[in-house]
Inverse folding.
DNA sequence: ATGTTGGCTAGAAGCCGACAA
DNA sequence: TTGTCGGCTTCTAGCCAACAT
């Protein structure tokens, strides 16, 4: 009862947006397109998010929407960032305005947010000791020194009160103390209240951030596998899929929700990134690639693999779609769920200089085949030759040759955006309704 | 972690269905149509449930579905009853098969379930003492004697262990003891675990039931106002509404979820009940009516009111719809949210013999006007004359005249169905896929 | 008949350094 | 540097009857 009241109050305040904290909670690999920029929306990927969220098999009879191709170019009209009331899961509400394909598009704004490199934040995956009722939270030394106010070490013991604010603008008080033999930083009083209120478990991650004026922010990120599979169905997945398709096919503004922790891949992609991947990147069966993935402990690492085929994921319903067009195998056994299907814009070239170059496949001996496909389905024909080379690759392994391919003389990976542009994202471009609040 | 594991196990078991417990948790006024029978489905009401569940204003641009009138006659092909994993909220999944209107329809099966009168169950709205950490649960004396096994009063004190099973087939052990001065029945050990696991608060209701073989069942029913407004949106309400309309308009089998605690009114109505209300009941402006409503403490009571107008709820989008066609005022100030719009099948005639008859309005002096409307929109014309008599009624008050109107010589209220027919519902009619399981 | 409260007690929560990885 | 544990203390949970309504 009291809990509800306090939430209600919070819900009514207009809240200061904290995009940085949202991104921290979303995970290290999540990027957001800029408001006002042009994006490519994939109803197919959107459907995958919906289906994954309600854990249902889809055996669907969709009416066809002739206006709706596998991808839809839109302008990101507005975006608001949110966090679920119950479990803090972050999601973004995006309003998309479909644009005519003929229209010439200014791509200047089409970059993604980048996490700030110099941010004053740290995240820690909780240990069993952190979450047990036996004690408090052990703060990594460097983390404490970076984000928390310095302690007065003349006191015995050195201690202070920390008040951290979460994505719902709720404040959580903690006692921060430096004690033990050897000395260490700890959060004691207040910690267990936080843990039980947020229902955190060992394996989940907490994020602490320091704002410009010294405020402390606090967010959570659940372990990936245990996302809560939205209970209480409102509609069948069939109805939902029909609804999202019909909404997109109407060629009017429509609104979608993007849940980065529930979705396997983003389904709203900056147009520039998409075009670069589709038109300016050499993709061919047998090609080596790399991709950054999130580990269990929410760090990231580059993984490598080989493209084994290029074909439609769903030839019946979504012919000539670029969504997850690539079939791949990975060099290492999968840590988390390792996708066997990827989209072209998700992968990058092997970055290191040529490592071990397999004699059978070199840049000169085998000319890579360009995959070029139309942006709008129907105005061309995508090349989807399914060359199964998995068996060959296995036979000729070790297969560690990487062809570095060039795109306009620079790396194919998306361009790096500095912190000034980040601020531009935060304050809005020329869009009149860049809503950057965070609601209840 | 452990919690999740145990839930997973439960989810995999095929569980014995307990329709009676489900109905208890749904509330005293909820009825379900029989599987195999014919029903009228109201997309408009369905949309209201969806909109209410996600707490969004609908400002919607729906494509029109010419095949879809405001009501759709279907056969209830199958129905499964469920309870939400998180908060035990009950919901029913119904598969509806649209039928041709020409088709002659056997109405024999078109009754609703009735709660069993002689059921061995009791429900109690929790007091602050019941939910505090200070103690246990005070069992009303008659309740304890009715549903729990008799205690051995030779022991000092008389006590036993009760194991009660909830809708997820999870067992909850309690210590049942008879003590105190004066003596009373209490549940002590185990009670607080249950309270905190279900996150029950004062004002919520628990239901205990005794099965035929002495098993004890246990369900919960949350206070109405605090239903959890489904967090984490998947789709906008617009998309959802489009989806549900498109699904219904396809004229194929479609599946809907009915959440009796979230919906203001049922939107799947037995065809017989609907026909009776539409074709065989006299409804007129100024008519007195009664309606049974649920109180805060989950008891029911008859409330009375007056019909002040008959008009389309949404003349633009749903012209000639019978959904909430009646405007009413109530005699008493509203206890819970008292609807000012009702559908014809929701109300009953004033049951008592003529009470105080207002001289201006009597059966003979003012001939009630029959409201007769087509079942399918388009094949006729509904009479929607908005006679605003509210002002008149207020002036001439006290206005307590009730015209008892007759329908085929019997009361207009839905017919009573005995417990044999209840069993028939439970075991299915001639449908091959009457699924009566309760999933995770 | 049953809701609330004070008294009492058992047990969990939670603070501490020791110790180990 | 930091995860876990045993020791100890504090406080809450929870059982009881008294008392009130």
């Amino acid at each position: 009862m009291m809990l509800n009241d306090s939430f209600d109050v919070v819900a009514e305040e207009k809240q200061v947006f904290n995009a940085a904290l949202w991104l921290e909670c979303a995970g290290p690999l999540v990027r957001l397109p800029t408001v006002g920029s042009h994006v490519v929306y994939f109803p197919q990927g959107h459907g995958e998010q919906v289906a994954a969220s309600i854990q249902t098999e889809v055996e669907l009879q969709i009416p066809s929407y002739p206006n709706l191709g596998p991808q839809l170019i839109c302008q990101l009209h507005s975006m608001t960032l949110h966090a679920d009331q119950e479990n803090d899961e972050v999601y973004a509400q995006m309003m998309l305005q479909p644009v005519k394909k003929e229209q010439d598009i200014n791509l200047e704004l089409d970059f993604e947010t980048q996490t700030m490199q110099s941010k004053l934040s740290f995240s820690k995956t909780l240990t069993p000791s952190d979450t047990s009722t036996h004690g408090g939270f052990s703060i990594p030394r460097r983390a404490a020194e970076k984000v928390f106010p310095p302690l007065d070490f003349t006191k015995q013991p050195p201690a202070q009160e920390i008040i951290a604010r979460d994505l719902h603008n709720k404040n959580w008080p903690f006692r921060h103390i430096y004690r033990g033999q050897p000395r260490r930083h700890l959060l004691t009083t207040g910690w267990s209240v936080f843990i039980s209120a947020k229902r955190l478990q060992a394996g989940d991650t907490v994020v602490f951030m320091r704002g410009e004026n010294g405020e402390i922010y606090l967010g959570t990120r659940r372990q990936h596998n245990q996302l809560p599979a939205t209970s209480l169905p409102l509609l069948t997945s069939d109805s939902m899929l029909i609804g999202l398709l019909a909404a997109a096919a109407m060629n009017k503004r429509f609104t979608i929700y993007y849940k980065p922790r529930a979705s396997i891949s983003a389904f709203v992609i900056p147009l520039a990134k998409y075009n670069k991947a589709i038109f300016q990147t050499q993709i061919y069966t047998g090609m080596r690639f790399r991709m950054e993935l999130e580990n269990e402990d929410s760090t990231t690492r580059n993984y490598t693999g080989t493209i084994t085929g290029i074909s439609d994921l769903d030839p019946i319903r979504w012919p000539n779609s670029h969504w997850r067009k690539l079939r791949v195998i990975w060099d290492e056994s999968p840590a988390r769920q390792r996708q066997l299907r990827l989209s072209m814009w998700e992968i990058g070239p092997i970055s290191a200089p040529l490592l071990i170059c397999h004699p059978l496949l070199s840049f000169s001996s085998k000319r890579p085949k360009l995959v070029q496909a139309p942006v709008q389905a129907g105005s061309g024909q995508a090349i989807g030759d399914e060359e199964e080379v998995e068996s060959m690759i296995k036979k000729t392994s070790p297969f560690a040759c990487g062809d570095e391919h060039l795109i306009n003389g620079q790396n194919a990976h998306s361009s790096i955006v500095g912190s000034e542009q980040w601020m531009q994202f935060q304050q809005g471009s020329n869009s009149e309704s860049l809503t950057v609040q965070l609601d209840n």
User: Anything to note?
Assistant: The longest strand of chain A covers residues 72-83.
